Inverse folding.
């Protein structure tokens, strides 16, 4: 039997990553993520896995975003008993993120009349199977395979998985980044024959990728908010994005020359994960590593206030005067940000600043697309505030950089499978690779299976 790669989730869509590599005597999964979108995409997450979870030997986890880990407890509930392997930084935050996801899923399950997808017991069982291993440390797997994690530059601890046998290698990129001021530069897929790669922004170019430009944009948003007396509301993912923003704000305020608008961090999960970030200084770049180990809290500054509970969170909307609020969740699919949006969206003096990817069907996406009215928790809310986007803080590579990533490995790459992007992005990137690099690339669909020589 030839080795095969099967796309079980995350092909033709950004979220729900789930890839199966099967040899004669080994079954290996890469990522097991939640599909995100309107009402969590109408029951798709509740469907059975298209393989028997009990036959899987190893599940690799590229990083801790919920669209890469959100169905792991279901996999365990459905019979998986193998090893779960990620970097230590990923493992350290996964439990808290899964607990948060279970809460959101429970609400959706009730509303859409589905059974509970998983509970605390399943999360605990998953964490017992989970090991953290460092980057750049090859280890063996069943059936003569070996693996190594290399740095994906996307969020703290994010990894690409290199799986090899007999001198041939397949690389699963997970999500790829490269513009964070906190992280080391990403590694490359040089030497691989196959690459399964993301394409979230395959058809886009990030306008403000330069750290100074994006920082200037953030600074301008704060100054304008202060002058108008409004609120600058930034929905942010709990992992990496919130910490990136806190670091940027610390730098902006330290540079001075702007009104000292108070900043409220209203995201209990993000606060918890920030502590976990600081506990893993070895995953930062050299400069940040040194600053953290010298005792500097790179995520704190005098103007920062941490919002303690929901009561304090509600009170925040009653207090007048300019302020910055960072709140979860990043795509406004739940969390405290929804309550703030009800107030902020109606206020012409305020600004909603979008700094991350917004999946099709999410509230954030509708706002970027210019919705004049949205429904939040059953209430119709007119949109009068400014809606701005600053994708300079994107944790993803844009189209030209994704192409560059493949160009680096051009000498050895025989085939590229482009996934984790909407069909237009994935298709655009495939065409680019064929036309500009002469590389055999394709955008598979979920359910597709291909033989590979490994
Ligand atoms: Zn991600």
């Amino acid at each position: 039997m030839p080795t095969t790669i099967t796309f079980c989730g995350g092909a033709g869509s950004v979220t729900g990553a789930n890839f199966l590599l099967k040899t004669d005597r080994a079954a290996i999964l890469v990522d097991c993520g939640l599909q995100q979108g309107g009402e969590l995409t109408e029951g798709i997450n509740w469907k059975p896995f298209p393989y028997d979870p009990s036959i899987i030997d190893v599940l690799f986890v590229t990083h801790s975003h919920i669209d890469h880990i959100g169905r792991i407890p279901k996999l365990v509930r459905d019979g998986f008993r193998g090893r779960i392997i990620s970097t230590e930084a990923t493992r350290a935050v996964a439990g808290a993120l899964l607990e948060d996801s279970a809460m959101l899923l429970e609400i959706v399950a009730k509303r859409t009349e589905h059974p509970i997808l998983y509970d605390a017991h399943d999360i605990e069982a998953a964490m017992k199977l989970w090991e953290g291993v460092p980057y750049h440390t090859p280890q063996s797997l069943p059936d003569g395979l070996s693996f190594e994690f290399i740095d994906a530059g996307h969020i703290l601890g994010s990894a690409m998985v290199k799986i090899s046998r007999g001198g041939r290698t397949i690389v699963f990129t997970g999500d790829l980044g490269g513009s964070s001021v906190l992280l080391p530069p990403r590694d490359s897929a040089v030497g691989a024959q196959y690459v399964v790669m993301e394409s979230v922004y395959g058809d886009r170019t990030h306008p403000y990728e330069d750290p100074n430009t994006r920082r200037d944009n953030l600074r301008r948003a704060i100054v304008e908010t202060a002058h108008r007396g409004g609120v600058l509301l930034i929905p942010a993912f709990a992992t990496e994005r919130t910490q990136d923003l806190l670091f940027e704000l610390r730098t902006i305020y330290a540079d001075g020359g702007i009104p000292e608008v108070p900043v409220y961090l209203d995201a209990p999960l993000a606060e918890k994960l920030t502590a976990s970030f600081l506990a893993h200084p070895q995953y930062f770049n050299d400069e940040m590593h040194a600053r953290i180990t010298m005792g500097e809290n790179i995520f704190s500054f005098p103007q920062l206030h941490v919002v303690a509970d929901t009561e304090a969170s509600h009170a925040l909307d009653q207090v007048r005067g300019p302020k910055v609020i960072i709140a979860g969740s990043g795509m406004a699919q739940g969390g405290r940000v929804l309550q703030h949006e009800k107030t902020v969206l109606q206020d012409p003096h305020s600004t909603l600043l979008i700094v991350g990817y917004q999946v099709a069907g999410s509230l954030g996406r509708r706002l970027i697309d210019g919705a004049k009215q949205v429904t939040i928790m059953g209430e119709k809310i007119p949109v009068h505030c400014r809606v701005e986007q600053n994708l300079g803080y994107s944790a993803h590579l844009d189209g030209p950089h994704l192409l560059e990533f493949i160009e680096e490995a051009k000498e050895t790459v025989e085939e590229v499978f482009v996934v984790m992007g909407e069909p237009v992005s994935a298709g655009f990137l495939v065409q680019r690779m064929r036309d500009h690099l002469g590389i055999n690339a394709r955008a598979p669909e979920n359910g597709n299976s291909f033989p590979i020589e490994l």
Notes: Residues 263 and 324 are 5 Å apart (CA to CA).
